[in-house]
Amino acid sequence: TCNFDETGLQSIINDVKKNYSAADKFFITGFEAGTHLVWAMVFQHPELLYAAAPVAGNYRGRCIDNTSFSTDASRTHLSIKNFTGSDDKDFGVNGRFYNQYLEAKNLAISHRYKNISEKEVQGKGHVLLPQEVLSYFNSVWESIKK
Known about the structure:
By secondary structure, this protein is of the alpha/beta class. About 40% of the residues lie in helices and about 20% in strands.
């Protein structure tokens, strides 16, 4: 599954670059189980990313082992922001699966990722947060263009 996910994502990226003259780097987000691939890309290929935004995400170490973490210098400044809804009973700050984010965050810190933050969106439950994620990506993009 891991090889399929990463190969599939790379195929999409190659198509977008070829057909639309896209940049070599990209932003990545995912919701719940979709964050397995987000974290795999963060931990294995930070050099390919402008920023990452896991939303109400799972992390169980899928596709990751102690030898697969990148040592690329880009990891130290890669912007990662975790998003949850304040009313999310499972993945929110007080949710029963929030510890999965904390596990990923602590792994990132132990591998010298330094730009990790989180945003709890008030009044939202276990939902996609596209406006919040796009606003975050836009702010990262604006800082890169400077």
